[in-house]
Amino acid sequence: MGHPMVLNFFFFLEFFLCLTAISALSVAKPGCQETCGNFSVPYPFGIGNTNCYRDLTFELICNDTYYNPPKLFWATNLEVVNISLLGQIGTLGYVSNYCYNSQGYVTSGNNPSFNLNDNTFSFSDTENKFTAIGCDTLAYLFAFNGENFTSGCAMISTNIEELINGSCTGIGCCQTSIPKGFRYFEIAISSYYNHTKVYDFNPCSSAFVVDYNWYNFSTSDLLNFTYNLDNYGYARAPVVLDWAINNWPMETDISCEEAMNNQTSYACGNNSVCGVSKNGLGYSCNCSQGYQGNPYLQDGCQGT
Ligand SMILES: *[C@@H]1O[C@H](CO)[C@@H](O)[C@H](O)[C@H]1NC(C)=O
Ligand SMILES: *[C@@H]1O[C@H](CO)[C@@H](O)[C@H](O)[C@H]1NC(C)=O
Ligand SMILES: *[C@@H]1O[C@H](CO)[C@@H](O)[C@H](O)[C@H]1NC(C)=O
Ligand SMILES: *[C@@H]1O[C@H](CO)[C@@H](O)[C@H](O)[C@H]1NC(C)=O
Ligand SMILES: *[C@@H]1O[C@H](CO)[C@@H](O)[C@H](O)[C@H]1NC(C)=O
Ligand SMILES: *[C@@H]1O[C@H](CO)[C@@H](O)[C@H](O)[C@H]1NC(C)=O
Ligand SMILES: *[C@@H]1O[C@H](CO)[C@@H](O)[C@H](O)[C@H]1NC(C)=O
Ligand SMILES: *[C@@H]1O[C@H](CO)[C@@H](O)[C@H](O)[C@H]1NC(C)=O
Ligand SMILES: *[C@@H]1O[C@H](CO)[C@@H](O)[C@H](O)[C@H]1NC(C)=O
Ligand SMILES: *[C@@H]1O[C@H](CO)[C@@H](O)[C@H](O)[C@H]1NC(C)=O
Ligand SMILES: *[C@@H]1O[C@H](CO)[C@@H](O)[C@H](O)[C@H]1NC(C)=O
């Protein structure tokens, strides 16, 4: 039988992989904390010492004193759920939620604003959608990226029979696209009849920008949207941000050509190529063909 042979072969292969893995799989800078719980933290993101991240916009905080398993945070209080070296980071963003009582008075409500305070991050237009939930609901998105942009949803439906789990059809759940490259938004919610006609099955309206791959409409969300409640009792929804390398803290965007002129600040390591970033701000790095690893480390890209 070939079985033992196969095992031996893999043992052999693993032995070699382990030797190269020391450099190839190391995603953080040498001497820097590489994981937070089971999360791996790749450079240019980093934890702790200032030389562990590229600049302050990439600083993450691993909170292992309060949370078990530990949680990773970006920009003081945005929880990180995902980091990709292909230029995206998943965070838990803010949700606007308004609840009414049977008399039509607001019992709780909030209009969050979300500011990505630099030219390195923007809300991903390809992964997120502005989403509103409710059957007596007006929800607005006010965004700014040099220009004002306003979008929204308006919904009235009194027939619970029309609602379908899993699909956002415009009845009880409405989704719209967001524009590329914007870095600031506010959400506001109002209502036509203060939910008095739908109170039995829909006392609350909510609206948020969300990773649309994550969100599936459920009629139970009409009762109250309570995903990922934070320490203050506010719901959070996953939102994907595009990130790029830029000439922080300057507010002007830098191209690959300009970046390469200064090898001290150029972010792409050996055996990597510079390219246009996902959000059109600054640039991004990628390992050259035939190489794999973290292109943001000096020797992060290793031959395969
Ligand atoms: C981390 O571990 C938790 C369970 O402790 C698991 O649910 C989660 O999927 C893991 N995350 C990653 C990124 O591996
Ligand atoms: C961890 O989270 C708790 C609760 O939010 C907070 O009080 C504490 O300061 C955080 N620790 C760090 C190191 O950020
Ligand atoms: C993490 O990112 C992957 C790929 O972008 C995506 O499929 C997945 O849903 C994300 N996970 C979370 C928890 O957001
Ligand atoms: C955007 O809207 C705000 C508030 O309505 C207004 O103060 C500001 O002048 C507008 N900016 C531009 C560039 O139109
Ligand atoms: C809804 O509530 C607002 C403020 O609570 C009130 O001014 C308005 O008259 C109410 N509208 C209806 C149709 O009940
Ligand atoms: C939505 O459905 C997808 C696919 O079935 C699943 O992976 C995802 O976890 C669901 N999201 C939520 C919030 O339950
Ligand atoms: C949708 O799913 C929720 C939660 O699983 C369930 O309570 C509800 O009855 C479902 N609604 C429909 C219309 O199937
Ligand atoms: C809805 O959930 C929020 C927590 O996000 C809570 O503060 C509020 O009291 C709830 N309202 C209703 C009507 O269930
Ligand atoms: C190159 O980048 C470094 C680090 O950001 C900076 O200190 C230096 O002034 C830059 N050199 C030039 C010629 O711009
Ligand atoms: C990076 O390069 C690999 C091949 O080397 C390619 O498959 C991948 O799509 C590239 N990614 C980006 C974001 O350009
Ligand atoms: C590229 O690799 C060579 C050989 O390993 C090394 O001498 C050089 O410093 C590296 N250059 C950069 C920009 O990392």
TrEMBL record:
Q: Residue limits of the Wall-associated receptor kinase galacturonan-binding domain?
A: 32-88
Where it sits in the cell: the answer is:
Membrane
> Which range is the signal sequence, renumbered to this chain?
1-24
Annotated membrane topology: Single-pass membrane protein
State if Signal is listed as a keyword: yes
Keyword Signal (UniProt): yes
**What Pfam families does this protein map onto?**
GUB_WAK_bind
Q: Please give the superkingdom of this protein's source.
A: Eukaryota
Name a single GO cellular component.
membrane
Record key words, sorted: Signal
One GO molecular function term of this record is:
polysaccharide binding
Extract the InterPro entries matched here: WAK_GUB
Q: What is this protein called?
A: Wall-associated receptor kinase galacturonan-binding domain-containing protein
- Source organism of the structure: Protea cynaroides
